[in-house]
Amino acid sequence: FLYFIGNMKFTCLLGLLTTAAATATAVEVNVNSTSGAEFSHFWKRSVGSSHAFLGRREDWRQQLQYAVKEAGFEGIRFHAIFDDDMNVVTGTWDNPKYNWTDVDNLLDFLVHETHIRPVMELSFMPQVIANCVPHHNCSVGFNYSYIKNPPYQKRWYLWHDLINEFVTHITERYGESEIASWDFEVWNELWGMPFPENYIPLYNASATAIKGVNEKYKVGGPATAALGDISEFVKLAPSNGGADFVTTHSYPSDPSCATSLDKDCFVNGVLNARSQAPDLPFYITEFNAGLSANPAGERPRLNSRFSASFIAYTLPKFIGELDVYSYWCFSDVFEERGLPTAEYAGKDYGMQTLHGIPKPSLRMFGMLRDIGTTQLETQQTVPAVESGVRVLATAGGSESKHQVLVTFFDTADMNGFDGLKINSTRVTINIDQKHYRVTATTINSTCANAWDAWKAMGSPPVPSPSQLQSLTKTSEPCIETLPLSQTSSGSSVTVTLESFASVMLNFY
Fold it and tell me: Looking at 68-82, 274-288, 411-425, 474-488, which range is the least confident one?
């Protein structure tokens, strides 16, 4: 969208426009620093990836470690730990042989070098267990040809034995206390395993195998797309090995919200799904700002500030509701319809480009990394669903006394976002304590915007080292100190945000 706004001039880092632009209703927010509730950083528990085989790549590993350092992620979820490219099962269906060499190589890197805990997706079916050798006789999906057959003749004990061998092996290798901190999620989005006729036997075999190794180990499902089948899973799970948590996926591009103009459509859908499993921890193990591409094949929502604003707008509503909120995925080193060969090449679902340029989504999680664990009470003059302004105020962060995240999520037209709509809004934050300084860390159309900088370079498919260095620098949020007013009851600061801009205010 740079071609549209390229002649506009910006007078401050927060996105205040000097050209004519529609101005939304001003919003005033009062922060009560004496009233708060503890909460966990549930979004750090996991970040998504593609399939396990990519964990052999050095660029995948480097980008994962950068994401962990930047955003504080504590875990990872990926597909296909049992795929044939991981060389787990050889032999025949009635005499399988297990080999954990490649699995150990990946898990050693995650556990010992990166110090994160998997949300271990149990997928997919080895060709030996499906008895469809050679591989082309199997029912497969995507470029990496995962197998979605059930075990041979639906002999579910074959899957049970695989899971038992796997969990026994990793227990011996990493210890009970380590594995007890993991979460085992059965399968992914019912691929080839319709619910309930195939999925529930698969789940039963998985859960009984895991609990057979250690009753304390945690297992859950149904890992469905679009918030599906949750209530039925909750009913069936107790008699099929039990469930320690419930998992599902949601995207604003799902049919339920794809054409909605309700800014809270995504939030309300997730909260409604959560209400169907009130007594169990609830994991969103895949989400992002939307999967659809524009007519040019680009994904502006995932590559622009829209993604950061979407995270900032939705995340506060899930405090106290979700236990995992796992963004999918951390890198464009990603293979479902083939690996990308260039930057921003249409397969760009990640928070970093193919060559490691951070996107605004990763920078937003970086801004959230050091916030406090006490959510402060706030009141605002115009509700978020009307104004698009959502605020998260916290105390106890590692960098400052109080932290206030503000975003202007301008429109709910999530499939229509193309950056052409430029509005602005003024937000005043009043906090009932005296402070001596406030800094602003900002993501907008000029800050943390490597995508437009890449276009301005001529869209090089493979940027040179100097271009990568420049783009990485451009990807960083802007930081400035703002004028801080002292009032009789505390401190006050006003910011002007353009559409989909976000700012983290640190009060000292």
Answer: 411-425
Vertex 200, ends 196 and 201: CA angle to 5°?
125
d(CA 14, CA 428): 13
Distance of CA 107 to the CA centre of its chain: 21
Using CA atoms of 468, 473, 477, 479 in order, give the dihedral in degrees to the nearest 10.
Answer: 180
Whole-angstrom Cα distance, residue 366 to residue 69? Answer: 9
CB of 112 closer than 8 Å to CB of 192: no
* 179 CB neighbour count, 10 Å cutoff: 24
Q: How far is CA 62 from CA 330, 349, 469, 502, in A?
A: 11, 17, 16, 27
pLDDT at residue 9 in the model: 29
AA letter at 310: F
Which tokens hold the place of 109?
């890197």
Alpha carbon distance, N-terminus to C-terminus of the chain:
36
- State which of 154-158, 261-265, 341-345 shows the largest mean pLDDT: 154-158
Per the CB < 8 A criterion, the answer to whether 83 and 40 are in contact is no
The angle formed by the CA atoms of residues 500, 501 and 502, to the nearest 5 degrees, is 120
Buried b (16+ CB within 10 A) or exposed e, 408-428: bbbebebbebbbebbbbbbbb
Task: Please state, in angstroms and rounded to a whole number, the distance separating the CA atoms of residues 414 and 254.
Answer: 10
Q: What is the pTM of this model?
A: 0.94
Q: Answer yes or no: are the C-beta atoms of 38 and 332 closer than 8 Å.
A: no
> Which tokens is 175 given?
């210890």
Joined tokens for residue 431? 């906090």
List, as one string, the DSSP characters of 40-62.
Answer: --GGGS-EEEEEGGGGGSHHHHH
- CA pair distance 323, 250, nearest whole angstrom: 15
Which residues 6+ apart lie within 8 Å of 133 measured at CB? Answer: 127
Residues 6+ apart with CB under 8 A from 471: 357, 450, 453, 454, 457, 463
What is the crossing angle of helices 360-368 and 305-314, to 10°? 40
Determine the Cα–Cα distance for residues 209 and 182; give it in Å rounded to an integer: 15
